[in-house]
Description:
By secondary structure, this protein is an all-alpha fold. The protein is built from 15 helices and no strands. The chain has one domain. Helix content is about 80%, strand content about 0%.
Amino acid sequence: MTPPLLWVAISVGAAGLQTARNALQRKLTGYLSPVGATSTRFVYGLPFALLYAALLVSLGTTIPVPGLGFFEWCLLGAVAQVLAMLALIMLLQLRNFTVGIAYTKTELAQIAVLSAIVLSDPLSWGSITAILIATAGIMMLSVKGTVLSLKAVALSWTERPALLGFAVGAGYTITALAIRGATLSLHSPSFLGAGALALVIMLAMQTLLLLAWLAWREPAQILRVATSWRQSALPGLTGAAASAGWMTAMTLEPAAHVRMIGLLEVVFSYGVTVFWFREQPTNRELVATALIVGGIVLLLASLG
C-alpha cells in the first residue's frame, strides 16, 4: 500500500532538483547554442536514468510491459519537453532567473483544464481555488516595473518573455499530460517501475531527436556537447532525477496536483537568485511567493 501523500514528498524533491538543473544549465548557454545546451539535459541524463532503472530491478521492482499507446504518449511528451526546454533557455537569457521561472508556471492552469478533459482527472473546488490563488501570485511575478495594475498585468503578457513563457508552459503541460497518460496506460501496480520505464523511454527518444537535429543543423555542437561533459554531467544527473520524481508522482496523483506542488520551484529559485546569481527579489515578488505558498497549503488542506 502506498503511504498517504507520498507523491507530495516526491514532488517537493523533484522541484528542488529541477531548480538546481535550471541554474546549472543556464551556465552552459555561454559555451553551447540553445539547442546544444538543451541536449545536455537529455544526453547526459539518459545514463543516469538507465542506472536508476537497473537499481530498481536489482531491488526487485517489476518493470511493466508497455503497449503501443505507451510509446505514443512518450513520443508526444518527449517532443513537447524538448521544445519547452529550448524555449526556457531562451527565456532565461531575457529576464532574471526568478521571473523567468514564474512565466513557465502558466502550465498550472492549462494542466488543470486539459487533464480534466483529456484524462478525466477530477479537481475539487478546493483544488481549483488553490490553483487560482497560486496563479494570482504568478501574475504578480510577471509584471515589470513598480506599478501593479490590470493594465500592467495585461501588457506584461504581450512581451517576448511572456510569449516564450506561454510556450514553455504549453510544452510542460503537454509533457505532464503525456507522462500521466503513458503511466496510466501501463495499468501497473508498481508506480516506481512505471515511472522508471517512462523516464528511460522518453530520455532515449529525446536524445535521439536532439542528436539528429544537431547532426543536421549544428554539427559542430555535437563535439562541444561531448567535450562539455564536466559541466554537463551534473545538470544531466539533476535533470534525470527531477524527471524521475515527476513521473513517479504522476503515477500516483493527477498531474495538476503534482505540478501545483512543483510551484515550490519558484520559492527555491529565490535562493538561487539571491545566493548564486546575486539578483535581489522585490517586495512584490515576495508577496507573490506568499500567495503561491498559500495556494499550495490550501491544496494540501483540501486533499486532507
